Amino acid sequence: MKEQQAVNQQQKFQETSKETAVQGPQPGQEFKGPQDGQKFSRSAFDFKGFFGLIRSVKPRFWQLWMGLALGLIATVMQLMVPKVAQTLINQLGHHVDMTLVAGVLVLFIVSAIISAVSGTTLGVFGENVVAKLRDFLWDKIFAVTC
């Protein structure tokens, strides 16, 4: 009896959630806005406008390029580690070249450090852009309300 009630409640919940599910408009469809029955049309993403907005806050592009360049260097170094380790593994049966072991370790550690610096630089760049955009938005809001 209780199991049947639980199943009935679950079915009612699923039916209710399907009926009340909120879905946004599809591209090209119109929908009413929250105020005064305004109609908006959803269009494709405007990359030109987006990049113009980013450029309007004058980000430090050198951070972006430095982060990307360091990321590329770190990726190349990380791809070299298995290739160098291959030579090391092939020598395991005969004799171990300690300079090769040290080289693999140094290559791995340096690539990890460069990758971390790259990620940090790109993160700082992104956070600065978002913070400046947030300040820009607040300035616009205060200008409208005052």
UniProtKB/TrEMBL annotation:
Membrane-spanning residues: 61-81, 101-125
Boundaries of every ABC transmembrane type-1 domain copy: 65-146
Annotated region (Disordered), positions in chain: 1-37
Signal peptide from the UniProt entry: none
Keyword hit for Zinc-finger: no
Cell compartment(s), UniProt: Cell membrane
Keywords, ordered alphabetically: Membrane, Transmembrane, Transmembrane helix
Keyword Zinc-finger: no
UniProt feature, compositional bias: Polar residues: 1-14
Membrane topology label: Multi-pass membrane protein
Chief place of localization: membrane
Official protein name in the record: ABC transmembrane type-1 domain-containing protein
Organism: Paucilactobacillus hokkaidonensis
